[in-house]
Specification:
Elements: E1 2-7, E2 15-16, E3 25-29, E4 35-39, H1 41-51, E5 54-58, H2 64-67, E6 78-80, E7 85-87, H3 95-125, E8 130-137, E9 140-148, H4 153-163, E10 172-176, E11 179-183, H5 189-200, E12 206-211, H6 218-222, E13 226-228, H7 234-237, H8 241-251
Parallel strand pairs: 1-5, 1-12, 12-13
Antiparallel strand pairs: 2-4, 3-4, 6-7, 8-9, 9-11, 10-11
Length: 253
Amino acid sequence: MRRLVFVDLDDTLFQTERKNPQAVRLAAVDKQGQPLSFCSERQEAFLSWLAQGATLIPVTGRSVDAFRRVLLPLGKQAICSFGGVILDANGDPEAAWHQKMATAAEATAHLLAELDGIVAESAAQHSVDVRHRVIWDMGLPLYLSVKHNRGSEGEMGRLAAAVSPLTPPGWTLHRNGNNMALLPPFLGKAAAVAFFLERFIKDESVLTIGVGDSLTDVDFMRLCDYALAPTKSQIISALPQQALHTEREKQWT
């Protein structure tokens, strides 16, 4: 049976040196070509195991440009910008999906600009040192990215708490560590994965696996036959510890 693996990238297959000093294999570079993210030996082995006899489809919050700066052998097909862009086997935007995203992005562009201003005001009011900007990808304004300049998760949490009540209904405020993203209702990894499966996978004899670390990955992972997450991830951290202990007790009694 053919195996199709939808896999998140950052904090799943590699991390920055700050997050994982033990990671040594260069995995991605920044816009200047300087080292940015690294794989640990275990992450490298995990990727090798995933890829054996399978087709890998990266599903990432990275823009197309940032995805193309990843040095791992992942191929050209990918879902980028939290589902805002689907790249086909040639690495080109899938036309039907791109048109759908273009129409939706046009309707929310003014709200993105307003939210950018809200983040700036809130950051100044709460003395939180961040950089923020609207992410454009393949010509489309898709979401708002916010990053703490000194890596403070606590300060980013304070900013998220201030901005959350001001976020329009239906929008998603996603925070993972010292990064935050504000996503419009039309944007999401799950919608793009569902489209990908409908458009490109006609054969029912395909085993699908979803791999991710973040709560924004859960919905696309649910679309797959199986789901995997790193033990040190936002997904596992969100699981109720008491429930896990109870299940272990049941297994041993």
